């Protein structure tokens, strides 16, 4: 009987340890989710930066137009506007390639975030299922323990009656 209690206690401790491990994993995933959200916030800041970059591009285009007008009116100073135009073009190209790289990075990070959210949802679902199973098993174990205690009590009563009857005989 002691062995049965010990087995049940060990089983409950094992289940409790499993439950704690699941909770730790959930906490770790929540921390990762917070990091991902923080990174997503940084991405939003980058998108705002991109918007200012678009404005800068427009400004650069305006400057380019001004330089073209200047070049038409001052043909003898043609070399200087050409240099400025080339510089603006290089800046635009550099800016566009940086913008494309950031778009790709944002897309990759968004996909990664989506995958992690799916993983977290799956783990939370599994954790919930395990929690329900553990609760059901604990209820069953509690019920069995109560029955065992009742049987122990009945056994002691019968044993006491037998002892009493032996003494009477």
From TrEMBL:
- Keyword Kinase found: no
- Top-level lineage group: Eukaryota
Q: Origin organism of this chain?
A: Corythaixoides concolor
Question: Which UniProt keywords are listed?
Answer: Coiled coil, Cytoplasm
- Positions the record marks as coiled coil are 57-126
Q: Name one GO biological process term.
A: de novo centriole assembly involved in multi-ciliated epithelial cell differentiation
Could you tell me where this protein is found in the cell?
Cytoplasm
Q: Which gene encodes it?
A: Deup1
Protein name per the record: DEUP1 protein
| GO cellular component terms attached to this protein's record | centriole; cytoplasm; deuterosome
């Amino acid at each position: 009987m002691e062995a049965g209690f010990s087995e049940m206690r060990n089983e409950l401790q094992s289940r409790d340890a499993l439950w704690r491990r699941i909770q730790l994993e959930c906490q770790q995933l929540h921390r990762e989710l917070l990091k991902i959200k923080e990174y997503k916030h940084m991405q939003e800041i980058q998108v705002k930066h991109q918007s200012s970059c678009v404005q800068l591009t427009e400004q650069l285009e305006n400057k380019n137009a001004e330089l073209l007008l200047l070049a038409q009116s001052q043909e003898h100073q043609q070399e200087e506007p050409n240099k400025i135009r080339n510089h603006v073009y290089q800046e635009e190209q550099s800016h566009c390639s940086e913008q494309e790289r950031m778009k790709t990075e944002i897309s990759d990070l968004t996909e990664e975030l989506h995958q992690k959210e799916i993983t977290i949802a799956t783990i939370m679902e599994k954790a919930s299922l395990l929690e329900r199973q553990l609760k059901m098993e604990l209820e069953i174990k509690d019920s069995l323990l109560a029955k065992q205690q009742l049987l122990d009590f009945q056994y002691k009563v019968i044993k006491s009656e037998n002892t009493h009857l032996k003494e009477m005989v």
